[in-house]
TrEMBL record:
InterPro entries: UDP-glycosyltransf_plant (IPR050481), UDP_glucos_trans (IPR002213), UDP_glycos_trans_CS (IPR035595). It comes from the Eukaryota. PROSITE patterns: UDPGT (PS00375). It comes from Turnera subulata. It catalyses: an anthocyanidin + UDP-alpha-D-glucose + H(+) = an anthocyanidin 3-O-beta-D-glucoside + UDP. Pathway: Pigment biosynthesis; anthocyanin biosynthesis. Keywords: Glycosyltransferase, Transferase. Belongs to the UDP-glycosyltransferase family. This is Glycosyltransferase. Its EC number is 2.4.1.-.
Length: 465
């Protein structure tokens, strides 16, 4: 009998990549497990602790453990999450993380958890954990469709990295769904997954080592959403794959900032387009111009959030400089443009907001479904392209902005057409059927009994490991 099965109380060490797009789903998973009496030790760099404290369910059985990042070249001290880092610094962070093996081993030997649940970057965790008799599980915060498209051993058969042409097509064995190919600009973006930086292993190499060495993989999805893709991963990985379900967030606590609540209150129910691109996705100046002019063309009220990579010091000045001339004056009665963090879940839950124009981040799209906000998708990198195909293609529950295949260019009309399909032409198809499908998925995700069952099953499976 494994130690976990021997005692009723499961103890899990959670160890996400130091990025909030990863930390948040780890927090959500921890919270749902904690409600089943699971003891949680949450490992992170010190600077992330205050924000984690605001969302992690703090019970007597939950603790947050500080893991200082060792100094490495290219990563200024004091930066603890990728939201503060340039892409080059985030690569240096992977190197720093790799240097943390002794520290993590000592910590695990003191904590003595039954399981350690870790992220894509820490490929060395399974080895350390098995030396200590601790089971290790990767938690993938990405969809199964993206994992199965990009991270399967056949992508490098013959030991060669895939080319753009290879990546335009699904890998061998990929299920027959609406995804038969991707555009060239998307495949070019996928090359990142296979690229090693300055001797540091690529995301793909790290992932393959994890698939080989860990005890099981948990994916943040369910069969209802991604059944064929989950089956495909099981066949390709030859590893136990557990599903956490989509981890639908609890209704957010707190109140929407008064200035935003007041502004939104003046518009009719479900009329406002909320447009934002998550925590680490940025648009180029040209894309911002076409997006903003496209929103203007729709004639609808909108709340646009635009962020910039961390190396921009004065973000408000950058924003003012990048918006088209006269734009803010022209739209002042019906448009807000903001840079910085917003209370996304509270905005989506506001009665006036009827549409979420977004990057297809896997948590963001779930938040749109449960808040009855129509989805207009402008995926900009990696898994987002595949999430968007899942929603707009397989599920037919949203619309993707039309783009030029070669370079991904989109114009203002493409933006406006996509929004109007869902927000203006509502008595015609395809809008009627898209909205019906969206509603169906929203109901599924809001069904508390179904969602609770995902976690109850997971807890049983974890105890049985
Ligand atoms: O101003 C903001 C921005 C984001 N959020 C929240 O942050 C989360 C963002 O989630 P998601 O869109 O899934 O993640 P990102 O961090 O934007 O995206 C990264 O992580 C995702 C996996 O979770 C991937 O799908 C994306 O490609 C990757 O860029 C959501 O809960 C949002 O509500 C806010 O509350 N306020």
């Amino acid at each position: 009998m494994s130690p976990a099965a021997a005692s009723d109380e499961l103890h899990i060490a959670m160890f996400p990549w130091f990025a909030f797009g990863h930390i948040s789903p780890f927090v959500q998973l921890s919270n749902k497990l904690a409600l089943h009496g699971v003891r949680i030790s949450f490992l992170t760099a010190p600077g992330n602790i205050p924000r984690i404290k605001s969302s992690l369910l703090l019970t007597p059985k939950t603790q947050i453990i500080s893991l200082p990042i060792p100094p490495v070249e290219g990563l200024p001290p004091g930066l603890d999450s990728t939201s503060e880092m340039t892409p080059a610094m985030a690569e240096a962070l992977k190197k720093a993380l790799d240097l943390m093996q002794p520290q993590v081993k000592t910590l695990l030997s003191q904590l003595k958890p039954h399981l350690v649940v870790f992220d894509f970057a820490q490929y060395w965790v399974p080895k350390i954990a098995s030396e200590l008799g601790v089971k290790s599980l990767q938690f993938s915060v990405y969809s199964a469709v993206s994992g199965g498209y990009l991270i399967v051993p056949v992508r490098t058969s013959g030991n060669k990295n895939p080319t753009v042409e290879d990546l335009m097509k699904p890998p061998e064995g990929f299920p027959s769904t609406s995804i038969v190919s991707v555009e060239r600009f998307q495949a070019e973006n996928f090359l990142y997954v296979y690229k090693s930086f300055d001797g540091s292993p690529s995301v793909y190499s790290r992932s393959l080592e994890i698939i080989r060495d860990c005890d099981a993989i948990i994916i943040k999805t369910c069969n209802e959403l991604e059944g064929p893709y989950v089956d495909h991963m099981r066949t390709q990985y030859q590893k136990q794959i557990l599903l956490s379900g989509p981890l639908v967030p609890e209704p957010p606590s707190g109140q929407l900032e008064e200035r935003w609540a007041k502004w939104l209150d003046q518009f009719p129910s479900k009329s406002v387009v909320y447009c934002s691109f998550g925590s680490e996705t940025f648009l180029s100046d040209d894309q911002i111009r076409e997006l903003s002019l496209g929103l203007e063309l729709t004639g609808l009220p909108f709340f646009l959030v635009l962020n910039f990579p961390p190396d921009f010091n004065n973000k408000d000045a950058k924003l003012a400089g990048v918006l088209p001339q006269g734009f803010q004056e022209r739209v002042k009665d019906r448009g807000i443009v903001h840079t910085g963090w917003v209370q996304q879940q509270l905005i989506l839950a506001h009665d006036s907001v009827g549409c979420y124009f977004c990057h297809s981040g896997f948590s963001s799209v779930i938040e749109a479904f449960i808040n009855d906000c129509q989805l207009v998708l402008l995926p900009l990198k990696g898994d987002q392209f595949l999430n968007s195909k899942l929603i707009a293609g397989d599920m037919k529950a949203g619309v993707e902005v039309n783009r030029r295949g070669e370079d991904g260019y989109f114009g203002r009309e493409d933006v406006s057409d996509a929004v109007k399909t869902l927000m203006v032409d509502i008595d015609k198809d395809p809008c009627m059927s898209l909205r019906a499908n969206h509603r169906k998925w929203g109901e599924f995700l809001q069904n508390g009994e179904i969602q609770a069952k995902f976690i109850a099953n997971l807890v049983e499976e974890l105890k049985a490991l």
